[in-house]
Design a protein that fits this description.
Elements (H helix, E strand, L loop, with lengths): L9 H8 L23 E7 L5 H10 L6 E7 L5 H7 L5 E4 L1 H4 L32 E2 L2 E2 L2 E2 L2 E2 L1 E6 H6 L8 H13 L5 E2 L2 H15 L6 H7 L3 H20 L5 H4 L7 H8 L6 E5 H4 L2 H4 L4 H5 L4 E4 L11 E4 L2 E4 L6 H11 L2 H11 L15 H4 L1 H4 L3 E2 L6 H15 L6 H18 L1
Parallel strand pairs: 1-2, 1-3, 9-10, 12-14
Antiparallel strand pairs: 3-13, 4-5, 6-13, 7-12, 8-10, 8-11
Helix pairs in contact: 2-16, 7-9, 7-19, 8-9, 9-20, 19-20
Length: about 425
């Protein structure tokens, strides 16, 4: 895949905008309440985040229309969500994602109110961000933000070493070599995820409709699909062989402790830190927690890994969303809250407070994301509209981790196994 793949054709954009059952043509200028505004109820909400000021703000706005509606919030890990819902049938709204909505058994999807039939106006949301939460034509949740795989770059460090932020693969490799020669471990991140995270945009963008691997698999040509993905595996080989990343260094990064991972980057000696939106969203809030950063502040930026010969592979996808429980005690008010959440102001407000890229058609881009979703980049990004399934993602992450650990006889074996999963997923769509 020796070409710049950041591109979406007008045809694809038009097709996305016409997704059956998953978009709305009308546009409300403001929210119009449709239920008893004096109702005194509590909405019970579960989510993946421990700290959720954004939800507080949206609920405060909702109280302008429904002053007596309160809420309780319980953090529940995604993998434990179904068990929690089984044990707590009083839950009205729960956070979800494609990984759970698209489970083959459909158990979580069946718990969701079909918002397609609830007069929920989705026109403020970029239609391309609805695909992951639209199952068989049924819109099951409201997306709340975007996920982007990228690199946080210590731009002050690069400048000190006489280097510039790389713009393509050749420049990236040259910068990595220069940093290694100066004694740095150039690319860092959690051990078993770093290779998959780094290559995610490169691999997953090509699995979207109209892109090389998707079209090759559609035509039944796994050989061509494997050839298109080989540069991703070659990059992993190069990182390991040339010491551009170090397993021992990466093992020190806690996988699920964002505080510690971010504070490690703020020590100031990490040139490129591999992460995604989930971690970037909390960086600004944690600057004050780092003694090292307070003593020696530096500039940093979030960029797409520049892995193409002509630039980066710009890949975006919906992140988490909210669904209304079909069995909850306050289904009508749960849907009403999601109707409110789907308005432009509230989508943008939740994204802004949470520190994540908005899914709204019209949004202000936070400074940290200017290099990945500004107008010039966003209009040429590949957006996952449901083509890249959770099983494809799992297969790449597990496969590339196994490959880096020497678990495959060859790169070809890795690619054959991964592409087999992708082909089966495409057949099942």
């Amino acid at each position: 895949m020796k070409r710049f793949v950041c591109g979406i054709t007008a045809v694809l954009l038009a097709a996305a905008a016409m997704m059956a059952g998953c978009s709305a043509s009308k546009k409300e200028e403001s929210f119009t309440p449709r239920l008893d505004r004096d109702a005194d109820i509590q909405l019970d909400i579960t989510g993946f985040f421990g700290n959720f000021e954004a939800l507080d703000q949206v609920m405060n706005d909702f109280n302008q229309y429904y002053p007596n509606v309160t809420y309780s919030y319980q953090q529940v890990g995604g993998s434990k969500e179904e068990a929690y819902l089984d044990a707590n049938p009083y839950v009205d709204i729960f956070m979800t994602s494609a990984e759970f909505l698209q489970k083959k058994d459909g158990t979580l999807a069946r718990r969701c109110v079909d918002l397609s039939g609830e007069d929920v106006d989705l026109s403020a949301i970029d239609s391309r961000m609805l695909g992951d939460s639209c199952i068989d034509g049924h819109q099951l949740s409201i997306p709340m933000g975007q996920n982007i795989y990228g690199l946080v770059v210590n731009t002050t460090l690069l400048e000190k070493e006489g280097l510039s932020v790389p713009q393509n693969r050749s420049e990236f490799e040259a910068v990595l070599a220069a940093l290694k020669a100066k004694g740095y471990t150039p690319v860092q991140g959690p051990t078993h995820k770093i290779y998959a995270d780094l290559t995610a945009g490169m691999v997953f963008s090509s699995l979207c409709e109209g892109q090389p691997v998707y079209e090759a698999l559609k035509a039944g040509d796994e050989e061509a699909a494997g050839a298109a993905l080989s540069p991703a595996v070659e990059l992993v080989d190069e990182l390991v062989a040339k010491g551009y990343t170090d397993a021992a260094v990466n093992a020190e990064y806690p996988e699920d402790n964002y505080d510690q991972a971010i504070l490690r980057f703020f020590e100031g000696d990490v040139p490129f830190w591999m992460c995604n939106t989930e971690k970037v969203s909390g960086m600004k809030k944690r600057e004050s927690k780092s003694e090292a950063f307070q003593k020696a502040p530096f500039s940093y930026a979030f960029i797409y890994p520049p892995l193409g010969e002509d630039g980066a592979y710009c890949y975006q996808e919906p992140w988490f969303g909210f669904a209304a429980s079909a069995s909850g005690p306050h289904t009508d008010y749960a849907v009403e809250f999601l109707r409110f959440l789907a308005t432009e102001k509230e989508i943008n407000q939740m994204a802004s407070v949470k520190g994540i890229p908005s899914v709204a058609v019209k949004s202000e881009v936070p400074e940290i994301y200017r290099n990945v979703i500004n107008e010039d980049v966003a209009k040429t990004s590949i957006i996952n509209q449901g083509e890249v399934t959770p099983d494809m993602v799992k297969a790449w992450y597990s496969g590339i981790a196994k490959y880096a650990a020497g678990g495959y006889a060859s790169a070809q074996e890795l690619l054959e196994e991964f592409l087999g999963v992708c082909a089966r997923e495409m057949e099942n769509k």
